[in-house]
Amino acid sequence: MAAVILSFPTLHGLRVFTQKLLWTKREVRLISGGVRRIEKVLIANRGEIACRVMRTAKKMGVRSVAVYSDADRHSMHVAMADEAYHIGPPAPQQSYLNMGKVLEVAKKSGSHAVHPGYGFLSENTEFAEACKENGIIFIGPPSSAIRDMGIKSTSKHIMSAAGVPIIGGYHGDDQSDERLRAEAEKIGYPVMIKAVRGGGGKGMRIARSDSEFLEQLQSARREATKSFNDDVMLIEKFVEDPRHVEVQVFGDMHGNAVYLFERDCSVQRRHQKIIEEAPGPGIDAEVRRKLGEAAVRAAKAVNYVGAGTVEFIMDAQHNFFFMEMNTRLQVEHPVSEMITGTDLVEWQLRVAAGERLPLLQDDITLTGHSFEARIYAEDPNNDFLPGAGPLLHLSAPPSDQHTRIETGVRQGDEVSVHYDPMIAKLVVWGEDRCAALKKLRYCLRQYNIVGLSTNIDFLLSLSGHPQFEAGNVSTGFIPQHYADLFPTPEAPSGVAVCQAALGLLLHERKATEDFAGTSGDPFSPFGSSSGWRLNTHVSRSMTLELADKKVIVVVTYNKDGSYGMQLGEERFHVTGELETEDGASFLHCSVNGVKSRPKLVILDNSVHVFSTEGGVEMSVPVPKYLAAASGSATQGGAVAPMTGTIEKVMVKAGDRVNVGDPLMVMIAMKMEHVIRAPKSGVIRKVFFGEGSQANRHAPLVELEEEGGGDEEEAAQ
After folding, report:
1. Phi/psi of residue 547, each to 5°?
2. pLDDT per residue over 214-245, tens digit each?
3. Is 373 in contact with 463 (CB distance < 8 Å)?
């Protein structure tokens, strides 16, 4: 008999193969009994997670059904699905949160199961029960587990009884402002105000003193009502400088439950995760075991089935306390998959069909380290305000065994104001934390996006911070290291400026050559790119802008086709050609003898240069008379920092306000944003009413200083 030799480049690859082999053996054992049929699954979600579920469904031979709103008619998840059904307008309440429409499609399409993804209906008790009543498998835990874990006060009682450590606080029925304020005083500031049905940072505020308690309470209630249709709050002690550590658990219908180790999700902005890793840095084997066993006790206490996450607060001494349980698949589940060689969506589908867990606890091993960086359409330099609009250019690093790009958008797609602004999740694996972090930074530099502000540069700054590299993370990491993470922007290097100028020159040369080819006069001087038509024969000056700073580049045209460039006292010899590859333009260039191949994107009056050193955006100044013709002067007052809906108007014409007073509340990207007065004065005009939608940069409120005064910059 001939021997069969299997070669695996890494232990990680061997473990993935072993996992699949175990599934095959289990399939043989389950052929004759107890397994429900899932041949078609409806994904009651959109974007990245819908695409993620579809990829595994296709791998398993399961047909996928998509639902979509008007805003998502041409989206990636619709294109990936085997079938897709329209379910309503863009507003989630009328589409993705409409249980009736989703169930109608499930029955109409003949779907055997519904996968809710995360967010939307994923932790909705009524939806889970409605699926069951209609004979449709809900790919998630029993509705009783969703109910018990979804109400934070109930979950804490259950966890305490199960021997899971908890933080004390007020979880009572008396929800009056006076009682909640009194409990906060009793607990001691700072306190965390949290919606009992909250999640994802929604309906969550920190009150650091009695003077701000009521404002933070009201804001949390409004957001909770909008997100969960429930404004019941709990108050608990806020642990200063904690770590956010969570454990991936999985249960089946046969009473088995396991943990797949912990993730550290400490680094957050607006109480929302931005970068996650597994395992947690600095956590030793004994603490890891205790965390996992506590999480399994939590799961078993509610007869948990499927994928879930038990979240803990951890202090500096590695003491941990139960925070909440998310009864769904988490956004950051890929890092757990990478270190365990598993496919948790495949586990979900199989367990929902009645199969046993494929691995017992002793079979699950941890290998290497994984990071996930969430790439958002947002402006970190403007309090991480989300953005919306088209992705004019988008290119990602290539995927491989150790690099995953989890996304639901393509170049040309629109990041919608109606939904979360996440563009993608970049997931990497390395043999240890150092190797994984190096891989993460390398891949971030290869992620190039034009059209919207993103947090990519911020993620590079964050992942390169010495304290992050050392694993010294906490939920206060960003404010603690704010000065380092948001340094004063440096002027681009002379090489980068030369590359941008060369790109513009070559782009111009192509345009003039195209003109010569169609003009009928090949000898026309207007078809020359040698400098003649500029009436300079030898040289010209180019003005480029970086933010508000102008850079003058003196360009000399050399007879051999090269260029001399001068920036102040610096001189450069530059050569290069443009090359198009897969729709992208690359500069094959040499600057003072050093060759490189940066990517070039030219849109309107801006040029973007992407290299292994990062990205540089420069623009060609627009003449003042053209700028004046394209816009109007901004009135003194407040403007919309993003496109969104006006949720609440707090002022009217004639009101006097002080600097920082709340003027309006906007809802955008599922988040609440308070618009505050940029100066003291009198309200002259309010441009929008409650329920209306305002575009980014639209004037919201006109404000005049008492006694008259110069107009101020608009507030963000």
Report:
1. 60, -120
2. 999 999 999 998 888 889 999 988 887 899 99
3. yes
441 noted as active-site residue: no
The confidence band for 3, taking pLDDT boundaries of 50, 70 and 90, is very low
The strand pairing partners of 303, in sequence order, are none
Q: Could you give the domains of the chain?
A: 36-139 (3.40.50.20), 168-237 (3.30.1490.20), 243-485 (3.30.470.20), 494-621 (3.30.700), 635-704 (2.40.50.100)
Instruction: State the pTM of this model.
Output: 0.79
458 near 377, Cβ under 8 Å? no
Which residues are registered as beta bridge partners of 85?
Answer: 67
DSSP code per residue over 548-594 = TEEEEEEEEE-TTS-EEEEETTEEEEEEEEEEEETTEEEEEEEETTE
List, as one string, the DSSP characters of 625-682: HHHHHH--PPPSEEE-SSSEEEEEE---TT-EE-TT-EEEEEEETTEEEEEE-SSSEE
Q: pLDDT tens digits, residue range 495-535?
A: 999 999 999 999 888 877 776 666 555 555 544 555 544 44
Angle at 115 between CA 114 and CA 120, to 5 degrees: 105
Q: Residue 707, Cβ neighbours under 10 Å: how many?
A: 7
Residue-by-residue DSSP string for 121-182: TTT-HHHHHHHHHTT-EESSS-HHHHHHHHSHHHHHHHHHHTT--B--EE--S---HHHHHH
**546-583 burial: b if 16+ Cβ within 10 Å, else e:** beeeebebebbbeeeeebebbbeeeebebbbebeeeee
Tell how strand 681-686 and strand 403-407 pair up: unpaired
What is the Cα–Cα distance from 487 to 481, expressed in whole angstroms? 10
Catalytic residue among 46, 263, 288, 328: 328
Q: Which pLDDT tens digit goes with each residue over 430-444? A: 999 999 999 999 999
Question: 281 near 471, Cβ under 8 Å?
Answer: yes
In sign, the C-alpha dihedral spanning 294, 299, 302, 308 is positive
Residue 263 DSSP SS3: strand
pLDDT at 48: 97
Structure tokens given for 225: 């009502």
Q: How many CB atoms lie within 10 A of CB 700?
A: 24
Q: What is the pLDDT of residues 445-497, one digit of tens each?
A: 999 999 899 999 999 999 999 999 999 999 999 999 999 999 887 888 999 99
